[in-house]
Design brief:
single chain; alpha+beta; elongated
């Protein structure tokens, strides 16, 4: 191993195929200057059950693996002209958020008078449902009145945002398509 004149003996301790320890004996040679992770070696011997030294042949112990064939293919991408590797492009969530336009649901559009009226009706419905849920929460589950008020302020702040108003208008417009109105009135 390395520049040592004599070999080094290693003993491997395994349990259920896992390495527990690796013991080395350099037979009195100084190994303090050897970096075992990078030092070259040339001969490996194993001891059989009778204690005889047998040259280790890695190819004889390993069966050929079909996984090795996966590394032998010729469909590599050709390098770009003038570059060895293509440039890296980071398109993570933050970059997509900064580059892309907001989804159609959040884009504000000018509202017609009919959309405003439908949105107003939808807002009234939302507030009525929120009030009923708050009343049931206070009466039956004995929720804190403070918690209900905080939820109400949060809902009011949410419903004031222009993107939410635009989404509500589209929702009201979509709900209005299913409304049946008498003709001629």
């Amino acid at each position: 191993m390395g520049d040592l004149p004599d070999p080094i003996a290693f003993q491997v301790e395994l349990r259920e195929g896992r390495l527990l320890a690796l013991h080395g004996d350099a037979y009195g040679q100084d190994t303090r200057a050897i970096d075992f992770s990078h030092v070259p070696f040339d001969q490996i011997f194993m001891l059989n059950d009778q204690g005889e030294s047998i040259a280790f042949d890695r190819a004889a112990l390993m069966r050929p693996s079909p996984l090795l064939a996966l590394h032998q293919h010729d469909d590599h991408d050709p390098p770009h002209p003038g570059q060895l590797h293509p440039p890296l492009v980071n398109r993570g969530p933050l970059e997509r958020l900064q580059d892309d336009r907001p989804p159609a649901l959040l884009r504000a559009e000018p509202l017609s008078e009919e959309d405003r009226e439908a949105t107003r009706s939808l807002l009234i419905g939302i507030w009525v449902v929120a009030a009923v849920i708050a009343l049931l929460a206070v009466v039956f589950s004995r929720a804190s009145l403070f918690l209900v008020l905080v939820g109400g302020f949060w809902l009011a702040a949410l419903l004031r945002k222009p993107a939410v108003k635009a989404a509500l208008a589209r929702g009201a417009r979509a709900l209005g398509r299913f409304e049946v109105r008498p003709s001629g009135s």
